[in-house]
Amino acid sequence: MKQHRLAAAVALVGLVLAGCDAQTSEVELKTPAQKASYGIGLNMGKSLSQEGLADLDSKAVAMGIEDAIGKKEQKLKDEELAEAFAFLQKRAEERMAKLNEESAQAGKKFLEENGKKEGVVTTASGLQYEVIKKADGAQPKATDVVTVHYEGKLTDGTVFDSSIERGSPIDLPVSGVIPGWVEGLQLMHVGEKYKLYIPSELAYGPQSPSPAIPANSVLVFDLELLAIKDPAAPAQ
């Protein structure tokens, strides 16, 4: 799957470059098609750079496309191309493994320091929380559906999701969310606000659910428990 994605990315960059002259300064960006072509190339270039492929030779990519379109004899054998793709794939995987390990170590260090702060409680699972606003409402069970407001951030403060920003709380089953939420929600009383610091193993672990959440990320949530839904109440 990754090899196909890599090959597709390189191919798309080549298609964009194929329509350009050797000197990019000579390329006009006037028509919608020209502007869209530039935008595709820009986005793909950023993506490839993030994948550790910033050293791809754009002229060589364009040459390959031109040879194919012109039905010229390819300058490299299929075996050489396969070897080159394998090299790039291996390098990208090694880079990603290094980044994931660095993220895991940074998360561990963050939690170690955060756990020393006044008001932060660390549970047996490693979940950390602060009570921001106390209340004496009911506590949800794992089988309940609750209404919450939340904002999720990375440890550097980057917001990746926020019902607060959308201005719309959500209903969700307590048992249907990440483990850190399952545990945290059952500690709360209706009306309370918590700040949860969720270790990666209680969130998404080595998997990245979206580009906004890197693998092995510690997640920080501002969470308000608004209500426990009455199972007998009609759905709205």
Which features characterize this protein?
alpha+beta
Layout of secondary structure:
Blueprint: H1 2-18, H2 32-50, H3 58-69, H4 78-114, E1 121-122, E2 128-133, E3 145-154, E4 159-162, H5 163-166, E5 170-173, H6 179-187, E6 193-198, E7 219-228
Antiparallel strand pairs: 1-2, 2-6, 3-4, 3-5, 3-7, 6-7
Helix pairs in contact: 1-2, 1-3
Give a structural overview.
With about 240 residues, the chain is of the alpha+beta class. Helices cover about 40% and strands about 20% of the residues. The protein is built from 6 helices and 7 strands; from the N terminus they run ααααββββαβαββ. Strands 1, 2, 3, 4, 5, 6 and 7 form a 7-stranded antiparallel beta sheet that branches. Helix 1 runs antiparallel to helix 2 and helix 1 packs across helix 3. The longest helix is centred in the middle third of the chain and has 37 residues. The two termini are about 40 Å apart. About 20% of the residues are buried.
